[in-house]
Specification:
By secondary structure, the protein is an alpha+beta fold. It contains 14 helices and 20 strands. It has 2 domains: 305 residues, 3-Layer(aba) Sandwich (Aminopeptidase), CATH 3.40.630; 127 residues, Alpha-Beta Plaits (2-Layer Sandwich). The two termini are 38 Å apart. The chain binds zinc ion.
Amino acid sequence: MPETLDAGIDATRLQDFCGQRWNDELLPLLEAYIRVPAKSPAFDPEWETRGLLDHVVQEAADWARRQPLPGLRVEVLRSAGRTPLIFFELPARGCDAQEAVFFYGHLDKQPEFEGWRPGLGPWQPSYDGTRLYGRGGADDGYAIYAAITALMAVHDQGGAHPRCVGVIETCEESGSHDLPHYLQALAPRIGQVGLVVCLDSGAGDYERLWLVSSLRGYCGGRLEVQVLDEGAHSGDAGGIVPSSFRVLRHVLDRLEDSATGRLLPAALHCEIPADRLVQTREAARILGEQAWKRFRWHCGDDGLPVLPVVRDPEQALLNRAWRPTLAVTGAEGLPPLQSAGNVLRPRTVFKLSLRLPPLVDSAAALAEVQRVLEDSPPYQAGVHFVPDRGHARGWNAPAYAPWLEAALDDASRAFFNGNGLASIGQGGTIPLMSLLGEQYPAAQFMACGVLGPNSNAHGPNEFLHVPYAKRLTASLAMTLVAYARTLRPAPPA
Ligand SMILES: [Zn+2]
């Protein structure tokens, strides 16, 4: 059971306050948000004339302004040709105002995708037990609402909290390309940052508070192999003209061991820090086979499921968080099956997508991938790798300050039935995190989120796990109070 945490702050009251606010206000707001197809610019070329991003930004900003938080300022920023962004600031209460907490979230969404279960749909909020289904509720519409609610929970008990600033963007799912512009303009107002709270990430399960300790980077491009200027009869040319598909396989084998999935160039790997190894071992102990069982594996005709790359939970988690992986996400030069004739095709093109370990430099990795693939082409075939313009560095959180780790662990035990805090490395990429890590090297990071097992952000049947969201909000409130305790008391007025 929750207990008293601090002079004046009662954990039960904090939890009740957050739970009540979620039921009365936040869930109806998120239902309305889910109904709006506020797709990120990359998925909606008409986003500007459609005005849906402006709409969801306005709704969230108006709601925030109505909340009884003395001194809260909420602004909508909208530079010409750029996506809108919410900036909010709240003065410190009862402690030194120099260092700020920086909240981050986003209101743009992924597109619909297919495969929603009957009765569910991307723009149709619906509940199944404690899950609120629909696009964007969990990724990442809840973030601004949870952040403001956590601050209200602190105020409700007259608690102290540091100065707070918040940035809620609408370009995240398109690679956050408008964000650096706004961050630069806001830098004087953001000032010194002591804690970054990113509410756009994942959780290993719904039974405890999870902190995200690292993210992978990303790079990719098109691998093109051309052998002829026009296709030829495969009976005539086969055995004389090398197949473009075989040449592509050959050069791809320099990048990846096709038997194990291991990427071969050393430049794509980094050493795994000792503390991450310890945390991963603990996460593997908690999750066990759920590390892979949460996927929807295909069963063969014999009823046996497809097996994971490794059947050791610890190695599976390390593969996902700390090792590079390759996916082929598209192809050209291959006709659809019904029009595939017996022809030796002139060219084959693959779209390559690589996830990179947290400490690997993505620009250097991309250059190495290009060198390895284009070096001495077999048969002097036309082998070209055209790198994507966008690539992103991964991120490794700085070592946790003792106060932060203790506060999060206390919160986890208080709000998650006595279960302590756990840490996990995520396999995805949030470009902003490495940007903020560079900009605020002294800051602590609380990267977390509601994207637990099966929550399926980006895919069909995305849901928000409501109890986890409530507990995360209460945990955030507790962390703000704990942070304020580490700062000098406010000088007398
Ligand atoms: Zn997101």
